[in-house]
Every structure is written in C-alpha cells, then in structure tokens.
Design goal:
This protein is mainly α and 70 residues long. It is 69% helix and 0% strand. The longest helix has 26 residues.
Length: 70
C-alpha cells in the first residue's frame, strides 16, 4: 500500500528545496486518503452487519475492485 504520509513528507521536503510539485499530485493524494476512509467505513459496516470475515477481508485489501483492461 502506498504510504501517503511519506509522499506528503517527500513533497514538503522538495518544496523546501524550491522544487515544483504539480497540484494534481496533491489532489491525487487527497483523493486516495478519502477513498481509504470510505473503504474503512464500508468494511466497518460489513463487519457490523455480520458478513463473513473472509469477504470483509477482500474489501479491506481492495481486492473487490475489477481489473480494467487496456
């Protein structure tokens, strides 16, 4: 899993060195954080609803997502 805190730290360090970071990179990090929170909420609901632990784990890992073809 991508360490978003490490990415934020690397961006902050590069910006301290006057290096440019494209705004879209920061936007993507924000979107990833929000998606992880949403997934955590869904997993909590599934656990509370009594879903099988093995299925809950599939959602927790994100393995439920469909692979997109080229």
């Amino acid at each position: 899993m991508i360490d978003l805190d490490a990415l934020d730290a690397a961006i902050a360090e590069s910006e301290r060195r006057n290096m440019f970071t494209a705004p879209i990179v920061k936007d993507l990090i924000t979107e990833l954080r929000e998606a992880r929170k949403e997934r955590a909420a869904v997993v909590a609901w599934l656990e509370k609803a009594g879903w099988m632990p093995s299925l809950v784990e599939v959602f927790r890992r994100g393995d439920h997502r469909r692979e997109e073809g080229p």
